[in-house]
Specification:
4 helices; three-stranded mixed sheet; 37% helix; alpha/beta
Length: 166
């Protein structure tokens, strides 16, 4: 069997294994970076909360049986909730950048619930940021109240080392 055919079989097997049909509904951008590393975006419905989606990603990675490591990244699939997200995402990013311009938002989702709107997102902040996560969440809630909606914030805060390259 030639290498192209083997690679296609491996690709098909990974996609079939990762997609559980319940939480992970699709895979896109499967890329083999080397013989030992592959990455892909796992699609999940926009209505599923981030913690459930990440749990599904971790379980999917454990199910994949191949001779390389695979990293999966969350990619909300288009859904009716996408319109809600589009309405709030830019406003949320402006508010977050006003707190600190070095902050970065990834995987933003807005959902309608019985209690109002829920914002779920990953917030990347540089290691040197002095406030604790609790203080930062308090500041986020204070700033988001300016949107004048009933709102719940669910942020995964990820601190990263901002190293400058020469």
């Amino acid at each position: 069997m030639n290498s192209v055919k083997r690679r296609q079989n491996k690709t098909d097997e990974i996609i079939k294994t990762v997609c559980d049909g319940k939480i992970i509904t699709g895979v896109k951008g499967l890329t083999f970076h080397s013989k030992t590393l592959a990455t892909a975006y796992a699609e999940t419905p926009a209505t599923i909360d981030v913690f459930t989606a990440y749990n599904a990603l971790n379980n999917a990675i454990k199910r994949v049986k191949c001779d390389c490591n695979i990293d999966l990244f969350l990619s909300p699939a288009p859904a009716e909730a996408e319109k809600i997200t589009d309405n709030y995402e830019e406003a949320a990013k402006v508010i977050i950048k006003a707190i600190n311009e070095d902050f970065s938002v990834k995987n933003f989702r807005a959902k309608e619930t019985a209690a109002g709107i829920t914002f779920e997102f990953e917030l990347y902040i540089p290691d040197g940021y002095k406030k604790s996560n609790a203080e930062l969440l308090k500041e986020l809630n204070k700033q988001f109240k300016k949107l004048s909606i009933s709102l719940t914030i669910c942020a995964t805060i990820i601190r990263y080392s901002a190293q400058k390259s020469d």
